[in-house]
Amino acid sequence: MTESTESDSAGSVDAAGTGVATGGAAAKVPAAADPEGRAARGVSGAPRRSVASRIVNRLGGGAVQIALILIAVVWLVPTIGLFIASLRGQADNTESGWWKVFTKPTELTLKNYTDVMSNDDMTTGFVNTVLITVPTTVLVVVIASLAAYAFAWIEFPGRDWLFLGVVGLLVVPIQVGLIPIAKLYGGIEIGGFKMFGSIAGVVLFHVAYGLPFAIFLLRNYFAGIPRALLEAARMDGGTEWTIFRRVIFPLGGPAIASLSIFQFLWVWNDMLIALIFANRDSQPLTVAIQQQVRQFGSNIDIIAPGAFLSLVVPLAVFFAFQRYFVQGVLAGSVK
Amino acid sequence: MAEVALTGVGKVYPDGTRAVTDLNLAIADGEFLVLVGPSGCGKTTALRMVAGLEEISEGEVTIGNRVVNRIPSRDRDVAMVFQSYALYPHLSVRDNIGFGLSLRKLPKAEIRAKVDQAAEILGLTDHLNRKPRNLSGGQRQRVAMGRAIVREPQAFLMDEPLSNLDAKLRVQMRAEIARIQRDLGVTTIYVTHDQTEAMTLGDRVAVMKKGELQQVAPPQELYDRPANLFVAGFIGSPAMNLLQGTLTGDAANPRIEVGGQTLTLPGEVLADREGLRAYLGKSVVVGIRPEDMEDAELIDAADGARLTSTAELVEAMGSDVLVHFAVEAAQVVTEDTKELARDAGTDVLGSLDAPRTDMVARFSPRTRVKVGDPLDIHVDTGRLHFFDPESGASIW
């Protein structure tokens, strides 16, 4: 008896789960009073379900999807507001909230964007951000993947202790490094080039603090590649270098793509490190935007388009890399 | 192509575990040698030492008169087929097969031609542009083979290449491997735990147990003249029946007593097996192959070559009938039989109140024996095997 009620309730959950179009009506059909339906379910053989699988099932339901869409919209409201504000004149923005635009669409203008484009601080800030972020991301990915390969597949004395050390570095906060590194940079001056205040200094700091996590992430991914695959490459005449370049690196695609995105986002959005180590010529967009606030109070007409420009690039990067998030890269390699 | 030789090769892992002991093998140019044994007998370790994937702790491995102990895998010029195939999942079949050649920086056109040729041999021509994940198990296995043959190496090393295939495909691929190896004439070392593969493929078969080589011989010799109890029990399916018995009578009239029954031995047995004279009056282990027994009703059998029992299970295989029965002889319990039982996944029933040994006979399909029937079994006494009960060595 318990068996049949159990399968009945599971069946009704099923109905609720798949009946998006019919809404709640299907779910409310009293299953117990429906012997035919029960028989049909008996044929399809709905097995007993755990609580967890029923929850998962319900998550696919229509009500949940509506709720999720609502949350997403609420979450996006500030971004939408920022976007609309960036398309309104300064006078309009001070006079009324951005949502008034829906009644007066004629307020929309691209003037703010042309202004930002002709603002030197903002344009050099944008270029600086790119000059900081791209080399950092490339350096972190290259160095970390090489290190991760060594930690995962090359045997050398003290390897595991060294890796533990790298993992330990994960817990060192950035703030601890600020003053010692600032002192160190202050002492580095090679023929007119000063490390402190330079883009190179900022990049170096980001790389140093990005590496522990990057090595940790990639090593664990590389270690999951079947040993037989590397041995096959070795038999085929591969050296450590060719194995890394032609087997490990291509197979590490998903991990390398996610690492690249993370690293890119962190550095792109960073303000703390740039604020300390960059001078006025090498400051990135985040610092440039922040400086606009200080100079003119709430000059939303510069800040909004600037912030939006700063937001578009990471989005583009994400969509460019997301195609590498493929499941089953290793499918078919070993049985 | 080259000969491969292992001289006093041993493997000790850093934690002190010994995997291979004093292995001596010489594989002639173009020979197909099968290494066979139960799991954990060190056969794969031995192969990996030849491949260079495992360091050689003791002894010397030579490939084509060149000592390769300190030479890395990539320079040994041998190709390996892995049990798991180990295909590069991100490369097409064409690139998988050509990978080794492209690492050797051969011209593109030459690689193309060689890959096409290998694909032709293996029937992969239609699949060259597909990825491994879109291939069936048998096709993957072919790609793994292709990767080995395209390089035209000094030797092939194969580590249980068929164990992941289903039974039917395995038979088919087995024939194919035999054909390819014969056509190419490349020295091959083939590791397997499947004795059928060992018997059908090998020019010679090397049986290993716990890291030690037991016997190397052509398949038929291994079957007819096993060196010891382990080889006798491992080669053959169903396995050889082993019984505790006593050799009685005199040199002119030897008899063997097993479980209260007596079998008369033909005189030539002692002539063939000189060593057996020394065991007159002593206990020996008697080995009887299932096919050396027959339903006495079907043949004109002489007296003194009969065992009687009761049929406990009758399995009709179509081509023959396997009859299970028991005799009241003590079970043979030695290191070898324990190892065999462990491999088969059964336990030796050490102490039973009454001595009892289970046996299997292979009868002609014309037999009418049914379960529970009394059995009158004719034993081909000229084909019995004898082993020393202490050492397990074959008596010749």
From TrEMBL, chain A:
<keyword id="KW-0812">Transmembrane</keyword>
<feature type="transmembrane region" description="Helical">
    <location>
        <begin position="126"/>
        <end position="154"/>
    </location>
</feature>
<protein>
    <submittedName>
        <fullName>Carbohydrate ABC transporter permease</fullName>
    </submittedName>
</protein>
<feature type="transmembrane region" description="Helical">
    <location>
        <begin position="202"/>
        <end position="222"/>
    </location>
</feature>
<keyword id="KW-1133">Transmembrane helix</keyword>
<dbReference type="GO" id="GO:0005886">
    <property type="term" value="C:plasma membrane"/>
</dbReference>
<dbReference type="Pfam" id="PF00528">
    <property type="entry name" value="BPD_transp_1"/>
</dbReference>
<keyword id="KW-0472">Membrane</keyword>
<dbReference type="GO" id="GO:0055085">
    <property type="term" value="P:transmembrane transport"/>
</dbReference>
<feature type="transmembrane region" description="Helical">
    <location>
        <begin position="302"/>
        <end position="321"/>
    </location>
</feature>
<feature type="transmembrane region" description="Helical">
    <location>
        <begin position="243"/>
        <end position="268"/>
    </location>
</feature>
<keyword id="KW-0813">Transport</keyword>
<dbReference type="InterPro" id="IPR035906">
    <property type="entry name" value="MetI-like_sf"/>
</dbReference>
<feature type="transmembrane region" description="Helical">
    <location>
        <begin position="63"/>
        <end position="85"/>
    </location>
</feature>
<feature type="domain" description="ABC transmembrane type-1">
    <location>
        <begin position="126"/>
        <end position="321"/>
    </location>
</feature>
<dbReference type="InterPro" id="IPR000515">
    <property type="entry name" value="MetI-like"/>
</dbReference>
<feature type="transmembrane region" description="Helical">
    <location>
        <begin position="161"/>
        <end position="182"/>
    </location>
</feature>
<keyword id="KW-1003">Cell membrane</keyword>
<comment type="similarity">
    <text>Belongs to the binding-protein-dependent transport system permease family.</text>
</comment>
Automatic annotation (TrEMBL), chain B:
<keyword id="KW-0472">Membrane</keyword>
<dbReference type="InterPro" id="IPR047641">
    <property type="entry name" value="ABC_transpr_MalK/UgpC-like"/>
</dbReference>
<dbReference type="Pfam" id="PF17912">
    <property type="entry name" value="OB_MalK"/>
</dbReference>
<dbReference type="InterPro" id="IPR027417">
    <property type="entry name" value="P-loop_NTPase"/>
</dbReference>
<dbReference type="Pfam" id="PF00005">
    <property type="entry name" value="ABC_tran"/>
</dbReference>
<dbReference type="InterPro" id="IPR008995">
    <property type="entry name" value="Mo/tungstate-bd_C_term_dom"/>
</dbReference>
<keyword id="KW-0067">ATP-binding</keyword>
<dbReference type="GO" id="GO:0005524">
    <property type="term" value="F:ATP binding"/>
</dbReference>
<dbReference type="InterPro" id="IPR003439">
    <property type="entry name" value="ABC_transporter-like_ATP-bd"/>
</dbReference>
<dbReference type="GO" id="GO:0008643">
    <property type="term" value="P:carbohydrate transport"/>
</dbReference>
<keyword id="KW-0547">Nucleotide-binding</keyword>
<dbReference type="InterPro" id="IPR017871">
    <property type="entry name" value="ABC_transporter-like_CS"/>
</dbReference>
<keyword id="KW-1278">Translocase</keyword>
<dbReference type="InterPro" id="IPR040582">
    <property type="entry name" value="OB_MalK-like"/>
</dbReference>
<dbReference type="InterPro" id="IPR012340">
    <property type="entry name" value="NA-bd_OB-fold"/>
</dbReference>
<dbReference type="GO" id="GO:0055052">
    <property type="term" value="C:ATP-binding cassette (ABC) transporter complex, substrate-binding subunit-containing"/>
</dbReference>
<dbReference type="GO" id="GO:0140359">
    <property type="term" value="F:ABC-type transporter activity"/>
</dbReference>
<keyword id="KW-1003">Cell membrane</keyword>
<dbReference type="GO" id="GO:0016887">
    <property type="term" value="F:ATP hydrolysis activity"/>
</dbReference>
<dbReference type="InterPro" id="IPR015855">
    <property type="entry name" value="ABC_transpr_MalK-like"/>
</dbReference>
<feature type="domain" description="ABC transporter">
    <location>
        <begin position="4"/>
        <end position="235"/>
    </location>
</feature>
<protein>
    <submittedName>
        <fullName>sn-glycerol-3-phosphate ABC transporter ATP-binding protein UgpC</fullName>
    </submittedName>
</protein>
